[in-house]
Automatic annotation (TrEMBL):
One Pfam family cited in the UniProt record for this chain: Pkinase
Organism: Chrysotila carterae
Domain Protein kinase: 65-323
InterPro entries for this protein: Kinase-like_dom_sf, Prot_kinase_dom, Protein_kinase_ATP_BS, STKc_AGC
Protein name stated in the entry: Protein kinase domain-containing protein
Keywords: ATP-binding, Kinase, Nucleotide-binding, Phosphoprotein, Serine/threonine-protein kinase, Transferase
GO MF: ATP binding; protein serine/threonine kinase activity
Feature: compositional bias, Basic and acidic residues: 19-40
Ranges where the record places region Disordered: 1-50
Residues engaged in binding ATP: 94
PROSITE patterns (UniProt xref): PROTEIN_KINASE_ATP, PROTEIN_KINASE_DOM
């Protein structure tokens, strides 16, 4: 098989995971962004740090692992539970089919490259609440990412099974996600795809962020992109919907949506149709149940302020550069 364009970025020796919406387990969320530069070509994440300080091993091969059961299937491949033969350590292995990536176009390849690069950078300085990447390699037909196995499933499934969480439970989870986002932002990266499906729950009860295919690096000069929005927009920040330049504040907005969903069992913005949901996000004040405590209401409303400069988290990220505009 011919090498994939850009796949030299997938391992240090020339060697990844999905973009939003491709690895869901019956999810209602779909892909949020499709981006290009001003020339209409896919713009890869440029991560010097990711290539300069890596703990990711690109010399591994599929025969180094014993393959167990299927964890999940998606548009471009599958995730399986594996054991490394030399250490007997269990991992999650994402297997992406090159033919499907190519068939769906440059954006799919870009998301695979982006996820590998960002996870590689995160793994050089491991964080307890972010999934680490251990191996990245390829064969003629497939790309492989070997990551931490987080055995408790995702937050979306837990919400479906357990219903709304208690406020102390939400406070605990929100605190771990805040620490993870601060770590991501400290690397000048926006996560851009925070939602229950992308938060894994460990058997010890702690959370880990996963799926960095939609991430974007912040730069000193704003990167102008064309953003096409598709799918259910209930977690999309208003500045994205209105075509404004955006920064890491969109992650704090999506955290507000996630906290609201953990507290009430449903998204804060979920009108009868997409157009109504967009209107609510861009112009309406969020409505919350009266039985929530004042501190819980204050937290959600603080994260869901329309003006990103006034949003909770803005002081932490005040030096972040805006990276997008769909109106310029």
């Amino acid at each position: 098989a011919a090498p994939l364009p850009g796949m030299a970025d997938l391992s240090d020796a020339g060697s990844s995971r999905r973009g939003s919406g491709e690895w869901e387990h019956g999810s209602r969320h779909e892909a949020l962004y499709v981006e290009s530069d001003r020339g209409g070509k896919a713009t890869p994440l440029n991560s010097k740090a990711a290539s300069s300080s890596s703990v990711v091993d690109s010399s591994a091969k599929i025969d180094d692992f014993t393959i167990h059961g299927l964890v999940g299937e998606g548009q471009f491949g599958k995730v399986t539970l594996v054991t490394e033969k030399s250490t007997q350590q269990m991992y999650a292995m994402k297997v992406l089919r090159k033919d499907l990536l190519l068939f769906h176009g440059k954006q799919s390849v870009l998301q695979a490259v982006t996820e590998k690069q960002v996870l590689q950078e995160m793994s050089a300085e491991p964080h307890p609440f972010i999934v680490s990447l251990l191996y990245a390699f390829q064969d003629e037909q497939h790309l492989f990412l070997v990551m931490d196995y987080v055995g408790g499933g995702d937050l979306f499934t837990l919400l479906e099974q357990r219903g709304p969480f208690s406020e102390p439970w939400v406070r605990f989870y929100a605190g771990e996600i805040v620490l993870a986002l601060e770590h991501v932002h400290a690397h000048n990266i926006i996560f851009r795809d925070l939602k229950p499906e992308n938060v894994m729950v460990g058997m010890d009860g702690h959370l880990k962020l996963t799926d960095f295919g939609m991430s974007k690096r912040l730069t000193a000069s704003a990167l102008l992109v064309t953003a096409t929005i598709c799918g259910t927009p209930e977690y999309i920040a208003p500045e994205v919907l209105t075509g404004s330049r955006y920064s890491s504040g969109i992650d704090w907005w999506t955290l507000g949506c996630l906290v609201g969903e953990m507290l009430t069992g449903e998204s804060p913005f979920r009108a009868g149709d997409v157009a109504a949901t967009v209107r609510e996000i861009t112009s309406a004040e969020v409505e919350l149940p009266g039985w929530l405590s004042a501190s819980a209401v204050s937290l959600v409303r603080g994260l869901l302020r329309k003006d990103p400069s006034q949003r909770l988290g803005a002081l932490v990220d005040e030096k972040g550069a805006a990276v997008g505009s769909s109106s310029k």
